Amino acid sequence: MRSSIPRREWEVTVAAKLIKGAEVAKEIREELRQQVAQMKEKYGVVPGLVTILVGENPASQSYVRAKQQTAHELGFYSVQEDRPADITEAELLALIDKYNKDPKIHGILVQLPLPKHIDETRVLYAIDPDKDVDAFHPVNVGKLMIGTADFLPCTPAGIQELLIRSGTKIEGAEVVVVGRSNIVGKPIANMLMQKGPGANATVTVVHTKTRDVAFHTRRADILIVAAGVPEYIKGDMVKEGAVVIDVGVNEVGRTPDGKRKLVGDVAFNEVVDKVAAITPVPGGVGPMTITMLMKNTVKAAMKAVGA
After folding, report:
1. Cα 185 to Cα 109: distance, rounded to the nearest angstrom
2. May I ask the CATH class of domain 153-288?
3. Taking CA 59 as the corner, what is the angle to CA 228 and CA 79, rounded to the nearest 5 degrees?
4. Does residue 5 or residue 38 have the better pLDDT?
């Protein structure tokens, strides 16, 4: 299967074959900015998001800053709650309960990972499902399974948007997902097999116990890779003309000027001339995740006002 992306967008150069998440995310954020303005004008309400950070993990701090910055840019009411690593589980649960009851807050995000003395499952389950903009609560996971989801998990939702907005034909396609995590692999497989727009695919999931991963990946019209292994998918594991979504971001050292050297879960240089389209790393799936978090928060606010 060749991508249905118009010829004028996909020429013979490598750069023209990239599905650039940063550009798609920018487009979606502009749509959200307009929705926020309309909501404020019509209902006198803006989406409210609280991000809760426990401890001082540098990566977590960076992620939370990016989420807060994006919320501010879109016109949200946003709150940042920083708590020390020695906070008790009871104190954290009480903080979540406070925001469950706050009508100005429509989305609650607890940044993971949490310190070992706190039960992450208990914390995530404490969030009101109507404010669970990460879509990790079992109520929202169940709704996703039966096709009635209010919120879609952020990274899988970003993947689906990239496929749709790049013009990739999903209906009837053979999709292979590499990885079975609760955050990416399982939900994206479920989303793409649903009945409806942007889905109706035939989905295979492979993982560490699959006997012959390459047998399956070579059949994929659409290959989604979230293995967590640098350059795991090689050129001979990919079908000619496939569309490849590389979810992985792996640091493999430093460049000569001291910057982090990042690669995906796909051996990009072996695959890029063989496929119809591929996401780069960085700049592919990554920029979509925060954008879809914001989209979920807008949805939660609209639901709260009955829109």
Report:
1. 21
2. alpha beta
3. 125
4. 38
